[in-house]
Amino acid sequence: MLELRPNCECCDCDLPPESDQAMICTFECTFCRSCAEGKLAGKCPNCGGGFETRPIRPSAMLEKFPASIKRVMPKHG
Length: 77
Known about the structure:
Structural class: little secondary structure
Order of helices and strands: EEHEH
CATH class: Alpha Beta
Strand order of the largest sheet: 2-1-3
Radius of gyration: 12 Å
Number of domains: 1
Shape: globular
Number of helices: 2
Strand content: 5-15%
Distance between the termini: 28 Å
CATH topology: Herpes Virus-1
Number of strands: 3
């Protein structure tokens, strides 16, 4: 199950579970669309893979399976 990390690992902006701006790689590295498509040029700096839009978990499922609250601090600026 996806962690639904709460922030961009590049610029540290908030990415709530309902955000359509969250992008993830196959290892769930999480970035905002702006960083993923801009600074990172579509390539994850951690694993070298590409990005996909993170799915939005239905609100009823968020109650049972909440998003992560652990922020991953920016590694790449």
